């Protein structure tokens, strides 16, 4: 099994564990919220409903993004994972955040429910914390394994990761545990003080937490859908390999784009040495393509275009994209 298939299987396990945990706690939170009259618990129930919808969308993302390329989609369906993950972020916002904010405003504007049987709420929150913790542990385990493989600090890895499914589960479960603590605090302070204001504040904080999570996940998937550059380290390594080829004079331009998780499209505009013949150029392109694919397993499609480095229109286009970072001359 290749690295892509292993990661796909690991991502599927992570999402399924998260879905199982959320289905269990959604029912428990909803029942406890109705029994206790706690707005924070009802907000947490809405949070879990949103999480269940998120996991279903992520399962759809994993299944559809794995379809092979065809005539209508010659670059494959990898970006479907980004589309469905974007919908998951929207689901978190609409089904979780908005309901939680509504519940908080409803309580704080003078429409609180009488709190009853708080012990039921505490028990449900404790059980939910354990189940969400199990799901989060799996997400952290996968993220740590992939982070170690990429040899990046955690924050940088999360920003550069091209697998939004695992990141969504990680953020979602982290928010879930934080939300449970907020609900516990709201329930406890309401019981101690007799004021429902704390319950309303907890509900508002849960809603705000979900807004933040939905925003960051939405930004991540927006950038991937637009067409983000591959990992800069991979881009530098590809450029280095191209510059080492005896037939290559200068790499004029190097374009990369993520077309899916572990799928990178490469377009290299190269000024080849003047002494090369047409037949030698063709053989060189085939050889370079094979060498790049063998060394960099994420490369999905590779295009090499012979260009003159001094063409004024091309120079301006490249300079407009990269500015002072552009290197038009052959390195020493």
From TrEMBL:
It is a multi-pass membrane protein. Residues 15-222 form the Cation efflux protein transmembrane domain. It holds the Pfam family Cation_efflux. Keywords: Membrane, Transmembrane, Transmembrane helix, Transport. SUPFAM superfamilies: Cation efflux protein cytoplasmic domain-like (SSF160240), Cation efflux protein transmembrane domain-like (SSF161111). The chain crosses the membrane at residues 12-35, 82-102, 122-140, 169-189, 201-218. It is found in: Membrane. The keyword Cell membrane does not apply. The keyword Transmembrane applies. This is Cation diffusion facilitator family transporter.
């Amino acid at each position: 099994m290749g690295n892509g298939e292993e990661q796909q299987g690991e991502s599927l396990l992570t999402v399924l564990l998260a879905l199982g945990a959320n289905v269990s706690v959604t029912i428990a939170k909803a029942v406890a919220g109705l029994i206790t009259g706690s707005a924070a618990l009802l907000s947490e129930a809405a949070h879990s409903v949103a999480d269940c919808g998120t996991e279903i969308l992520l399962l759809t993302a994993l299944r559809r993004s794995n379809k092979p390329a065809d005539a209508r989609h010659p670059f494959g369906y990898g970006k479907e994972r980004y589309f469905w993950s974007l919908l998951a972020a929207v689901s978190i916002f609409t089904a979780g955040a908005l309901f939680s904010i509504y519940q908080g405003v409803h309580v704080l504007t003078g429409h609180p429910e009488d709190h009853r049987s708080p012990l039921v709420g505490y028990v449900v929150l404790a059980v939910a914390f354990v189940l969400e913790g199990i799901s989060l542990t799996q997400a952290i385990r996968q993220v740590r394994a992939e982070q170690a493989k990429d040899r990046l600090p955690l924050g940088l890895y999360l920003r550069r990761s091209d697998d939004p499914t695992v990141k969504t589960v990680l953020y979602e479960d982290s928010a879930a545990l934080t939300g449970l603590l907020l609900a516990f605090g709201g329930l406890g302070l309401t019981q101690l003080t007799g004021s429902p204001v704390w319950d309303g504040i907890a509900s508002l904080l849960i809603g705000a937490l979900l807004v933040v999570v939905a925003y960051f996940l939405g930004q991540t998937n927006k950038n991937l859908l637009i067409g983000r550059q591959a990992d800069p380290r991979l881009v530098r390594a590809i450029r280095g390999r191209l510059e080492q080829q005896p037939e290559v004079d200068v790499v004029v331009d190097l374009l990369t784009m993520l077309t899916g998780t572990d799928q990178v499209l490469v377009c290299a505009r190269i000024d080849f040495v003047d002494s090369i013949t047409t037949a030698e150029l063709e053989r060189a392109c085939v050889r370079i393509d094979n060498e790049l694919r063998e060394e960099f397993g994420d490369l999905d499609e590779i295009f090499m275009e012979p260009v003159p480095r001094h063409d004024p229109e091309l120079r301006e286009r490249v300079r407009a994209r990269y500015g002072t970072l552009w290197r038009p001359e052959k390195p020493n």
